[in-house]
Amino acid sequence: MTREEARDIVYEGIQALLDCKDTPLTEDLDLVDELGFSSLTYFFLLVRIEEKSGKRIPERKARRMETVKDIIDILAAL
To answer: DSSP label at 23?
Structure first.
């Protein structure tokens, strides 16, 4: 998967979960502090990303995800 494909999947997932289709997303946004993610929102995002990408994100890597960029980088590297 290319980084652009990973970015599209992550952005789509965030926009769907937060209902912010008109809000511009950037890779440097912090999931908790700036996007207001709860642990439940985070879980639903991971499930959505795994379903869309067909890839499983290992738990040890998922724990390190703090920004939108972190998610994109990990997904693209799988």
So the answer is: S
